[in-house]
Write a structure and sequence with these properties.
The chain is of the alpha/beta class. 37% of the residues lie in helices and 20% in strands. The protein has a domain of 295 residues: 2-enoyl-CoA Hydratase, Chain A, domain 1, CATH 3.90.226. The longest helix is centred in the middle third of the chain and has 16 residues. 54% of the residues are buried.
Length: 538
């Protein structure tokens, strides 16, 4: 069966639930739930199976560098002795979960460095493009770039994390016609060439967002990471309808017109999140295709997880590395590269769906872009469900205007004090007063963004920037504006209520609560992810 799935992957599926349909798998943080959805008025949206990976990814990378898209010359023609070269790359927020070694960034960076060495380039810096995310640790950097690159560049200080708050390390480039400031890492701006190494896990990633966001800082990011932009981005993943996308492209145009040269390298991976075999393989199958071994493994896994402490469960899941396979490599001019990359992302993720429903259900896993090797705090639970999963659509949301979202997650009142110090204050101080994105942006954002202690922790420890929890709440803006109610099943009541949501013990309880808004026989769509999918809703 596994061999057939590898050779002939099936497209995504919309399953109409009837009385014979087995319970659907819902991720529930570091555990799982099996939920029986109402027959006759429920449907389950399943992702496509993983597309085949490239047979020779290293050769594909070399070919992409020498056969670029758009009007860009080959990489080798852009490199020369005495030049200043900066290689920037995506941080640990991509992919999710982290991929097994060798990481795709390592493969690409090694190929770029080999090309640079052949051209006599010796002034090379490598920068993890963090934006306002936390700094990567040594082990995380080693995983991303590989031991050879790390050991060659880190000891001399030529491999490091971007610092958006370094007053001597940032440069203001100008403003867009919309009055948006454009800011970028000074080393990158002063380089003869920036090579950006990107992983496109979803269609929002890549393009001008790579440099205009990843190498930028608060004064520039605030122009698109705000409630108005987020509400008007319908959705972030649908570039044609994304104000976030348009803002990044305007900032990118300013970068280009200023003379900054970018050679963009974008890669895609399939959605082989849990593997074709092994302990988590059943999570990638459709429930009615589970065999006796799958059922036994799932029951045993659930029993084992229940006996473990929350910390042990978290450690076990965070140790998982996905066997993703590289499906494409594109290099050259930024916009031409991103256009082709987006098409390749859609080939893996798009699932055709007819119409909207009254309720959207989502099972939220243990990981999101901002808690790698950390805790999924309540704000990140909201961001994952309402910011990311809700927005994984083209056309229209899966749920109608005024509908209800039901999510499953334990949602503990639990924060990592090293990674998320400003989140603690945001949750206890800001959300206790208001859940309205506009109100909190006007009243509190500037104080958190400019707080010297948060700046210090961001620069010297492993803390997300002080403003970061605001941005994660703003990600929810479109969903909060669209939905009439958000319900979390199995979540800690205090933390769920603090965010303005409704707690429910069971799915049946949640459906009864939702009935106040959508009636007693609502239609339901279940977003069956991970692996990732994107609903193309007519």
């Amino acid at each position: 069966m596994a061999d057939n799935r590898r050779k002939n992957p099936r497209p995504g599926l919309v399953l109409e639930v009837d009385r014979t349909t087995p319970p659907a798998l819902f991720h529930h943080g570091e555990s799982f739930r099996l939920e029986k959805l109402p027959p006759g008025r429920s449907r389950i949206i399943y992702p496509a199976e993983p597309l085949p990976g490239l047979k020779d990814p290293n050769n594909a990378i070399r070919e992409a560098l020498e056969s670029p898209l758009g009007d860009s010359p080959p990489l080798s023609a852009l490199l020369y002795s005495g030049m200043k070269l900066t290689i920037a790359f995506d941080d640990i927020s991509l992919p999710l979960p982290p991929m097994r070694k060798p990481d795709i960034r390592q493969r690409v960076i090694e190929a770029v460095l080999d090309t640079a060495a052949a051209s006599g380039v010796d002034d090379v810096h490598l920068i993890a493009a963090l934006a306002l995310h936390r700094r990567m640790t040594e082990s995380e950097l080693r995983h991303a770039v590989g031991d050879r690159v790390y050991d060659a560049f880190s000891p001399s200080g030529a491999l490091y994390n971007h610092d958006a708050e370094d007053p001597d390390g940032m440069m203001s480039i100008g403003t867009t016609p919309h009055g948006e400031e454009v800011q970028i890492n000074k080393r990158a701006a002063e380089s003869d060439l920036i090579v950006y190494v990107n992983i496109n896990l979803v269609s929002m990633d890549g393009g001008w967002k790579s440099t205009a966001t990843g190498l930028s800082g608060y004064s520039a990011l605030r122009h698109h990471h705000n409630p108005q932009t987020m509400v008007e981005s319908k959705s972030f993943m649908d570039q044609e309808n994304s104000e976030l996308h348009k803002s990044n492209w305007r900032q990118g145009k300013v970068l280009k017109e200023s003379g900054i040269k970018v050679f963009q390298i974008e890669t895609t991976v399939n959605n082989n999140t849990f593997g074709y075999d092994g302990p988590l393989a059943m999570l990638q199958k459709r429930e009615w295709e589970w065999n006796l071994k799958d059922r036994a493994l799932f029951i045993g896994m659930q029993a084992g997880l229940q006996r473990m402490s929350p910390q042990s469960r978290r450690k076990a899941f965070m140790a998982w590395e996905s066997p993703y396979e590289i499906t494409s490599v594109q290099a050259g001019e930024v916009e031409a590269v991103h256009k082709q990359t987006t098409e390749n992302v859609y080939k893996q993720h798009l699932v055709k769906v007819e119409g909207q429903t009254d309720i959207l259900t989502m099972g939220l896993p243990y990981i999101c872009p901002y808690n790698v090797n950390s805790v999924m705090n309540p704000v990140l639970v909201a961001c994952l469900g309402l910011g990311y999963f809700f927005n994984m659509y083209k056309g229209k949301p899966l749920v109608r205007k005024g509908g209800v979202a039901i999510m499953t997650h334990p949602t503990p009142w639990d924060f990592n004090p090293v990674h998320h110090p400003s989140y603690i204050d945001f949750f206890e101080r800001v959300l206790s007063e208001t859940t309205d994105p506009v109100e909190m942006s006007q009243k509190y954002e500037k104080d958190f963004a400019e707080d010297e202690w948060y700046r210090h922790l961001y620069r010297t420890s492993y803390a997300y920037h002080g403003v970061h929890p605001f941005y994660m709440w703003y990600w929810c803006s479109h969903a909060l504006d669209h939905l009439s109610q958000v319900i979390i099943v199995g979540g800690q009541s205090e933390s769920v209520r603090r965010m303005g949501f409704r707690p429910a013990t069971t799915m049946q309880d949640a459906l009864e609560i939702a009935s106040d808004t959508v009636g007693f026989n609502p239609t339901i769509s279940h977003y069956h992810s991970p692996p990732i999918l994107m609903a193309d809703v007519n």
